[in-house]
Amino acid sequence: MPFFLEKMHSIRFKLITSLIAVSLFVFLVSILVGGNMMYRSVIDEANNRIRQDLNVARVIYNDRINAIRLALELTASIPEYPETSSSSDTLPATKVIHQLGRRLKLDFVGMTNARGQIIHQYRQDSANTTGILSKNPLVTSVLNNQQPIAGTVVLNKGQLLFENPSLAGRAEIGPKKKSDSKNAEITAMTIGVAVPIFVDETFKGVLYGGFLLNKDTDIVDKIGETVFKNEIYEGRNVGTATIFYNDLRIATSVKNPLGERALGTLSSPEVSRHVLGEGEKWTNRARVLNDWYITAYEPIIDIFGQRVGMLYVGVLEAPYADIRTHAIMIFTSITLAGVLIAIVLGWLFTGRIMQPVTHLIQASVEISNGNLSPDIGPISRDDIGRLQKKFLIMTAALKEKEKRHKVEDETRLLQSEKQASVGKLAAGVAHEINNPLTAVLTFTHLILRRKDLSDEVRSDLEIVKTQTERVRKIVKSLLDFSRQTVIKTESTEINKLIEDSLGLMKNQALIQDINLSFHGADNLPTLTLDQNQFQSVLINMIINALDATPPGGHIDIQTMQVDVNRERGVEITIADTGSGISPDDMGQIFDPFFTTKEVGEGTGLGLAVTVGIIERHGGTIKVQSQMHKGTTFTLWLPCRGRKGSSDSQTDEESSDIEDINS
Amino acid sequence: MKILIVDDDAIVVQSCIRILELEGIKASSAGSVEMGAKLLSAEGASASFDLILTDVKMPGQDGFEMIRQAREIQPAIPIIMMTGYLTTRTMEKGCCYAADNYIAKPFTPDELIDAVRKTTLRQKGETGK
Ligand SMILES: Nc1ncnc2c1ncn2[C@@H]1O[C@H](COP(=O)(O)OP(=O)(O)O)[C@@H](O)[C@H]1O
To answer: Whose C-alpha in A78, A205, A639, A651 is 20 to 30 A from the C-alpha of B60?
Structure first.
């Protein structure tokens, strides 16, 4: 019983595990494919966004330039303004310049005359630079072209000092890693604008101004504000903006954990090669401080068309990566939930399936224990129900068969009991008869040897002699029947044995004008049997058939391979066209001493002996008959000969009986 | 030639004696195995037998016992068993005790003479070798 339960559970287990395996597989694939696709589209989206952001940053950068330019152009075009060349009349100009400097948060503002000599400079210290030739490249450009100019401009230390001594200090951002940084000439990147001043269409001078980008926070913070709305993700700025002078970070919104701006470091060589070297835009994933960013760079070109720096924006990758992580987590929890549901459903479902199966298993156990009416539970409406119905049909058939077997067994038992008792009696009688019979035979023979007998006496004595011989025969067949001999088996080609037996009977058949034919199947398995006994069986059968069949009839013997209960064997049929056996006689023909033949013709022992022999060989005998049409005897013999178990039994019986007849 | 017949049934003994007489063979009879053994072991020319004819089934000691004892007294003596009917088992048992031949009851005079002749001839042939 535990064995069955175990087996059943393993079926259940298998069902559920395969269910889970399938769902896990599907979910895994969808996570891998879906997660990846989602990640990629998110990253694409991020890349697109960063490019747009870079454009906006550029616009903001340019806006600053344009704002200054507009202001300077406006200022330069004021009509009453000013006698630029006269040094005495500088006061209103000074005021304007100061206002410009303050309002536009410019780091340097100045005005020169048409020759480039400083008229006024907005500076924190009190040094008077009036009359000195301006060194500012912006001024030089306007002096040459008399055209306004605006944009990015790189100033060296001298130029910075000239504009404003305090600027040099601010500009100082050493690339800390470079050993020669200390000695390097301080240069700074600025945004600068210079416009020509015309009075009555004549060029009178230059108005210029600008501010330092080094350590500037305005532009980068404004980018952060405008583009990224100062969004914070888990304590970090989502978006960052940086301005590079060449590959050196000079202004940035990136702050280290202490709140300091992360300045002075260099961009990666790969970035500078692409952006500064080739002038390309560059978008990539990069590590900034401790976080991954999706970054975009573009070159900054100064007023002379030189690539002097880079504009950078970056968005934190984490929010995008986290979308994927979240998605995967959601997928995973759905998967787990699915698996859980699969387990629960599988358990319930297989339980429902297995319940009738369990019943069936229990029922079959009961059947094997001999209960042919087991309870198989309610019939279910599915395929299992069909199985259950088949099972019921099967048990019904089993019951039927069992009943039939019982009846057969009972009759067989009755028969063998009858045989055994009759056999013992016969053996005892035969033994008692044998001795007197010896005397009768002896003396009849001895008298017959005498020469002085009259013919009448002699013929009478002959009758005594033949009748005594007959008695002897009867006793012999009685003993044949009662004797349970140990069969002496040898492997036998049954067809050959039958042909030999037929040879003995052919003449008789010819005399009676009966067609005796034999059809043996080819390739029959060899049988293990007692040839003498089987031959006597065959001959008895043929004699019976000859006795029953009128002239002109026929007797047909056939063999073929027939397996009974998976046991190989041969079936022999002896069919005649004789008188048939009446239904009344049918039940008795196998009984000893039952005969319908005339006294002296039949002993009624032939078939009784036959049954004994066939059974001792483990075979069966059946008879079918129709009155006036004919009779067919069907013998079946297994290849193996008789079974081992019946061996000893037969031996026992034989010793019993021999003791009487010896 | 002299034959010892052992059988508990007098009519069988009588029949045998009559048959053998006609052939000029002398015979003594014993109604039991004890008697047969006594006759066999008795001294004197009248007690020297050339062949034993014994029944198998007898009250008390049976034919097989007769053979066993006869072999002790006279190992080379030919023995014929008379059986009510021959079975494989009696044959096997008889062979174990070295009966030389057997004859089934009931028999005709010719059958008995035949059996005796054959047995003695066979015996002579074997001892002659
Ligand atoms: N082939 C047959 N056709 C008709 N009756 C048969 C046939 N074989 C046997 N019988 C019947 O079975 C009886 C018993 O047969 P059996 O036991 O062989 O004894 P016996 O042949 O000595 O009568 C026969 O007397 C006969 O009535």
So the answer is: A651
Is there a cis peptide before residue B106, judged by omega within 30 degrees of 0? yes
Domain with A193 in it: what CATH number?
Answer: 3.30.450.20
Q: pLDDT tens for residues A162-197?
A: 888 888 777 777 654 444 444 456 788 999 999 998
Q: Measure the CA–CA gap between A493 and A559, rounded to whole angstroms.
A: 11
pTM over 0.80: no
How far off is chain B from A476, nearest CA to CA, in Å?
Answer: 8
* CA neighbor of A526 nearest in space, from A580, A484, A570, A461: A570
User: Which tokens belong to A42?
Assistant: 């998110």
Q: What is the CATH number of the domain that holds A658?
A: 1.10.287
The answer to whether the beta carbons of residues B36 and B52 sit under 8 Å apart is: yes
Which ipTM value was assigned to this complex? Answer: 0.82
Would you tell me which residues 86-125 of chain B have a C-beta closer than 8 angstroms to some C-beta of chain A?
Answer: 87-90, 105-110
pLDDT(A629) > 90? yes
**Number of domains present in the structure of chain A:** 3
Question: What is the mean predicted confidence (pLDDT) over A218-229?
Answer: 84
User: Taking the domains of chain B in order of start, what are their residue ranges?
Assistant: 2-127
Q: Are residues A398 and A500 in the same domain?
A: no
Question: A635 with A497, same domain?
Answer: yes
User: What CATH number belongs to B2-127?
Assistant: 3.40.50.2300
Chain A residues lying within 8 Å of B89, measured CB to CB: 486, 654-655, 658
Q: What is the per-residue pLDDT across B1-22, written as a single tens digit (0 to 9) for each?
A: 899 999 998 999 999 999 999 8
Query: How high is the pLDDT of residue A498?
Result: 93
Is the same domain home to A522 and A620?
A: yes
Q: What is the DSSP annotation of A135-155?
A: --HHHHHHHHH-S-EEEEEEE
